[in-house]
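subagent[fold] <- orchestrator: predict structure for attached chain, return tokens only, no commentary.
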Amino acid sequence: MGIFDKIKGAIWGEAKAAPAPTQTTAATANPAPAPTPAPSATTAATSPATSAPAAPVDIASILDAAVKKSGQKLDWKHSIVDLMKALGMDASLSERKELAQELGYTGDAGDSAKMNIFLHKALLKKLADNGGKVPAELLD
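subagent[fold] -> orchestrator:
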């Protein structure tokens, strides 16, 4: 599992904590309408498929909550290090270099300031490309 997958997993894991009861309700709905299996089976199969992709993951609210939970003063909106720390991840230079490789960074990995700027922008864009709702001002 790569660094991006760990970040995505941490964010999407927080987002999926609320929709779990919806799946339980759909599973409960299947056995109840036993006399008419065709319509209820079609409805139950359509509902989860429609709700999963339609609800984008609100990246900002999840990261804001993670910062609050951490008890630290972290600026995830401008810092890749703070973003990773908010998620409880290792934000060491070696981890960020690995993430840079995953996200296609071609600059000098020795210039951590430039690499960090690239990482922050590229990470937020990739999260948006994978179904995350990222504030537009952070995608510039």
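orchestrator: received. Logging for downstream: The two ends are 28 Å apart (CA to CA). Confidence is low (pLDDT under 50) at residues 18-52.
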